[in-house]
Amino acid sequence: MKPAQVLLFILAVIAGLGVVGLVMPADGIAFGGSFTVRMPEPKEVLFPVEEEKVDISDILAMATDSSATTDTEALADSLTSDTALIVEPFVFDTTKLRPLEERIALHYPNGDKHVLWPLFAKLEAANAGSRPMRIMHYGDSQLEGDRITAYLRNKLQSQFGGTGPGLIAVADIVPSFSIDRVLSDNWLRYSVMGRKDKTQHHARYGALSSFSRFTPILPDTAALDTVLHEATVTLRPLRRAYGKAQQYNEVKLYYGWHRAPVTIELLNGEEVVSTEEIAPADRLLIREWKLPATPAELTITFKGTDSPDVFGISLEGRTGVCVDNIAARGGAGYEFRKADQGLLSGMYNDMDVELLILQYGGNVIPNLRSAEEAAQYGRFFGAQIQRFKKMIPGVAIIVIGPSDMSIKEGEDYVTRPYLEEVRDALKTNSLAQGAVFWDMYAAMGGRNSMVSWVTAEPALAATDYTHFSPQGAKKVGELFYTALINDFAAYYGSKQN
Fold it and tell me: Which of 127, 4, 92 is nearest to 485 (CA)?
């Protein structure tokens, strides 16, 4: 082929592609929902415009607390001595507060910041109480492994007292940042998320939205296995965890609904703390152990022909603040209505929950097709807040909206459609129900800010443009804590005048 013919062929191909680019819909053509063919417009190819990144230099410069424990001798001493658990007098130094930017501020019903003052009063007195003040942090996969919560817990416990990682599941889908958990291989996990197990004839998931067993669920009319089964869960402090989370001196076990006697043994290292046989029960049971100091290794052994449903183990101090991390992968807040309300109420009542932090919204965004669907989700969430307020009278509720999430559009990553509509719907309905709202999307920089978090050094978010990295989770925890503690400062200052 002659050079002139090659040139004409190339020009013809370019012209053809140009025509296709002009007639192709801007959103491309979808094939079976699995992929989309999109042609760039000629001006995009000839005159590309570089996407301007959101400036997050202030977030990058923001200091966060370290979690690594390097002094191994000091750690060993804290685990075997009661000195680390001595209650210290409350101290609040307002001079250490960082200036509050409006974009990270908490939003209040009718702008009334007094809504959280009863909670702040309980925080101030937490170290003087007879039991820990309980905060439960619910959310989706952004919280998995105790991310974000671990940082917030450490900040609150450092300021207001308290120790321990709080309520943890026996079996979970990811390891925890704050506790080392070693299980025998016969534990089964049942979760409110996803398809219900066909053998499960009840909805008793408890406050963790899941429960664990070491024998399968059998119908009430089925004969029990005559084999004696044994299962163990061993808990050890993690050196990578925050120091306060590595210490505890109270253990609470939430369990029940077993059809045959079960023996429960607690070991502190090699020492047997207690061994007891529990009669069959069709209700929630709570066993509490008080320890002289944090065990280097704690083992709970269960023996029986029928496993109880085990709803969680709480590791906590005797005063101060206790903060639970409760993540549900794929959760949007719908799961609470699926759970047995009587069991939920029983666990909440025993733990005396003072604050619920509800962090949702991200999982509904990819499936929305209109702004009205976003508004419907917000209305549903408002009804869920009502449910909690009836179940836990006097509880304070803070709703955390979704983070920025990106989707690829052409060559650029941009904020997902309807994210702002979901954020607005959550805010409107949360405030209408008397809850406080924190706008995580605005706090991290707003529209298209996720790109800056992903490309930051070090990266603050994963390349799925959805989930935070460990460093990013700390930044989010610091931003939220700063907003909360600044409003606490206003409450505290009002008392000094």
Answer: 92
Question: What ranges make up the beta strands (E) of 242-319?
Answer: 250-258, 262-268, 271-278, 281-290, 298-304, 309-316
Task: Give which of 443, 441, 436, 444 is closest to 487, Cα–Cα.
Answer: 436
Walk me through the domains of the chain, giving residue ranges and CATH numbers.
61-85+92-496 (3.40.50.1110)
Euclidean distance between CA atoms 319 and 293, whole angstroms: 14
- Cβ burial 458-493 (10 Å sphere, 16+ → b, else e): eebbeeebbbbbbebbbbbbbbbbbbbbbbbbebbe
Which three-class secondary structure state does DSSP give residue 149? helix
Neighbour count for residue 17 (Cβ, 10 Å): 15
Residues present in the chain in total:
497
This prediction's pTM: 0.89
Residue 414 has a CB neighbour count (10 Å cut-off) of: 17
The CB-side HSE value for 81 (13 A sphere, CA atoms) comes to 9
Return all residues near 350 (Cβ < 8 A) that are at least 6 apart: 254, 286
Burial of 420 (0-12, 13-18, 19+ CB in 10 A): buried
- Lowest-confidence pick of 320-324, 474-478, 492-496: 492-496
Q: What is the pLDDT of residues 325-374, one digit of tens each?
A: 999 998 889 889 999 999 999 999 999 999 999 999 999 999 999 999 99
Q: How confident is the model at residue 198 (pLDDT cuts 50, 70, 90)?
A: confident
- Report the alpha-carbon distance of residue 172 to residue 235 in Å, rounded: 13
Find the DSSP H helices in 363-469.
371-391, 419-432, 440-443, 449-455
The answer, yes or no, to whether residue 46 has pLDDT greater than 60, is no
